[in-house]
Amino acid sequence: MMAADRCPFCLHPIDGSPEARQPSRDHVFLQALGGVATTPVCKTCNDTFGADVEGRLLRPRKILSIAKVAAGRMDSAPGYLKADGSRGVFNFRDGTVQFSPPLTSFATKTEEGLHIRAAPDQIEGVVPHVRRWATKHGGDPDAAEAQLRAAPRGSLGNDLFVMDHDVELDQLARLAAKVALAAGCRVSDDFRDAQPLADSLREVAWGRAEADLLFGLEPLQHIDALLAELTAKAVGEVAPRFAPVALESQVVFCPLGDSTIIFVHLVGFPLTFGGMKCPGTQPARWGHTPVLVRDAPGSPQIVALQDWLLPRLHAQPDWRDGEVESAQ
């Protein structure tokens, strides 16, 4: 049986034989973040990783939702104002915040007049309350409504909106290992049996081993010199030939205090924000979006998948011709 006839994640056959599992195609990089390259896998593993790892990390308040924002695939996110802790939902389409009650959390009186921090639809919901308040206190409800509608709104000024995120290191490590396996098999069929690298990645991907296996520690440490030598011979031969998993694509590990955040860095416009490398094809989204991610100082540590992949790429056909499936 050829290596390509086995799933890289479980090594079960996918060749149509009686004992084979149903074949499928797995996106090397998350389709939800714009990934398009695929590799053959079994449907069981594809469904399992999609639900238990990728899907879990892409939910609101999970750490990869910030990558969805950078990739232009997420419209809003929950969080709070850094200055006073007011909770709300930030809208990335128009830069407004949908604040939670009470009214005082988004309407403030200044020397210049009334200032509103709210989304337009929330303003409409507040109008009846403002009119009743004005009537109760002997004011003119029409004037109060006019003042409300004329007030500046949708601006955070110098404040920052902090997005809530749960950091699940174990799940992020599983995702990184899964991406490494899929990318390796995309480039070379014999990656499934590359030892000890492939088995170590499988152990991490299935949650059976510590994430240290992905950080260049034992049992991978002893192959560093060999990989460096092979990579040095291949640099410069790959970029024009391989898409979308090119030199710019890698798994990025960012130490943040006592924990670590792992991002899949897609081809496009690499961005550095808040000490993290994020994928994205619309740099302007970060340029004008007042968003702060809680982190701590630290330099990203990059585990370059191309250490193993680059030496094998120059011998492969040009996969840009009919081999890359478009994401739906």
What is the spatial order of strands in the main beta sheet?
Answer: 5-4-3-8-13
> What sort of overall outline do the alpha carbons produce when their principal axes are compared?
elongated
Count up the helices. 9
The separation of the N and C termini measures 32 Å
Largest sheet: 5 strands, mixed
Using DSSP, what is the number of strands? 14
From the alpha carbons, calculate the radius of gyration and give it in angstroms: 25 Å
Q: Domain count, please report it.
A: 2
Write the layout of secondary structure elements.
Elements: E1 23-27, E2 38-42, H1 43-57, H2 65-70, E3 76-81, E4 87-91, E5 97-99, E6 107-110, E7 113-116, H3 120-136, H4 141-150, E8 161-163, H5 169-187, H6 197-205, H7 224-234, E9 250-256, E10 259-265, E11 271-273, E12 276-278, H8 284-287, E13 291-292, E14 301-303, H9 306-313
Parallel strand pairs: 8-13
Antiparallel strand pairs: 1-2, 3-4, 3-8, 4-5, 6-7, 9-10, 9-14, 11-12
Helix pairs in contact: 1-5, 3-4, 5-6, 7-9
Written account of the structure:
The protein is elongated, with a radius of gyration of 25 Å. Residues 211-328 have low confidence and may be disordered. The chain folds into two domains: 3-71 and 165-313, no CATH class; 76-163, no CATH class. It contains nine helices and 14 strands. 30% of the residues lie in helices and 18% in strands. By secondary structure, the protein is α+β, with helices and mostly antiparallel strands. It has helices at 43-57, 65-70, 120-136, 141-150, 169-187, 197-205, 224-234, 284-287, 306-313; strands at residues 23-27, 38-42, 76-81, 87-91, 97-99, 107-110, 113-116, 161-163, 250-256, 259-265, 271-273, 276-278, 291-292, 301-303. The chain has a five-stranded mixed sheet with strand order 5-4-3-8-13.
